[in-house]
Amino acid sequence: MESPVRKSVVVSAVNLRKGGTLTVLRDSLSYLSTRKDLDVTAIVHSERLCHFDGIRYIEIPWSAKSWIRRLWCEYVTLHRISGQMPETDLWLSLHDTTPRVRANRQAVYCHTSFPFLETRARDWRMNPKIPLFSKFTKYAYRMFVHRNAFLVAQQNWFREGLSRITGFPSERIIVAPPRFEADQRPDNQMDLSEPPMFFYPASPDCHKNFETLCEAARLLEARIGTGRFTVRLTLSGDENRYARWIKRKWGSVASLSFAGFLTREDLFAHYAQAHCLVFPSRVETWGLPISEYMPTGKPMLLADLPYAHETASGSMKTAFFPPNDPEELADQMHRILENEYDFLSQVPGQETKPPRAENWDRLFEILLMHENTPTR
């Protein structure tokens, strides 16, 4: 009896080298390495970052050196590579752009939420790469997008936004929420002998909006005095221009604590010790600290934006504040300190219409479900 013909899958991810996007690459290849019915090729920056047995690797380290090289890789190099391969059943790009390749079906996993960032004049001074990237990615998403059978997004608001800016049908954008392994679960180990601690873990990037929380801390300290609370930030104040501006403008606020980068172990220790998570970020694809902190059941104060409502779905003690309103945030923090929790509420669950994939198995079931006209 002849063995069934294995389908051919190519995963291209030449720019994924760190953070959550690298986790997505590793998770996808870990899953695909178990699929004996698929012949899998991964085109990556470096095999050592994501090696799994049973997968063929092609390394393209030069693509990450500039956007010009990245575009050349996507639209020239990958087209040449695809022409040298046997017939490809599915080509999945894991980083936002649609490469010009030969395949029976294409799909793109969309990570970057920057097209939905409302940029400020200050962003251009602090880090012009972020507002430039927010404008560029809007056009990068559109290039060749209609070659795809599907797009993949982590949240429903992101699906609707992608459909709006690209004209791609929302019924062909799969919502695939990230999965979180319970390798660490924050406990409730608050030191009641210390002032209550508000915690904001984030990288020192201007879209993370540290200024709203820092100004709220200044206002609250002026209102109730020093020594009544602490706001712990995961920046040291010397990482970049934005961090230096934050430290220079609010460094004299006694209630602010500049902790700098935390290891994962220290991060979860802070989750355990914190009385409340504050998350004022202006845009996120997901908002991982919200998901990590939620199991504690302790209060969360979150930016009143679609990503936060969706990520916090099901949480029990949550309130939202306008991300540009430090006075409202200071009021909410004050109520937490006064043990007035009546303004906190459960965030209702959000029902997501199909297509939706809760795991990699379901995602690839959808991606490989039907035949598609080959793209050339």
Write up this protein.
This protein is of the alpha/beta class and 376 residues long. The protein folds into 2 domains: 182 residues, Glycogen Phosphorylase B (Rossmann fold, 3-Layer(aba) Sandwich), CATH 3.40.50.2000; 141 residues, Rossmann fold (3-Layer(aba) Sandwich). Helix content is 35%, strand content 15%. The protein contains 12 helices and 13 strands. It has a 7-stranded parallel β-sheet, with helices on both faces. A 6-stranded parallel β-sheet has the order 10-9-8-11-12-13, sandwiched between helices. Helix 10 links the parallel strand 12 and strand 13. The longest helix has 18 residues. The radius of gyration is 22 Å and the shape is elongated. The C terminus is likely disordered.
Topology:
Elements: E1 7-13, H1 19-32, E2 38-44, E3 56-59, H2 67-84, E4 90-93, E5 106-109, H3 121-126, H4 129-142, E6 150-153, H5 156-166, E7 173-175, E8 197-200, H6 210-224, E9 230-233, H7 241-250, E10 256-258, H8 264-273, E11 276-279, H9 288-293, E12 300-303, H10 306-311, E13 318-321, H11 326-337, H12 360-367
Parallel strand pairs: 1-2, 1-4, 2-3, 4-5, 5-6, 6-7, 8-9, 8-11, 9-10, 11-12, 12-13
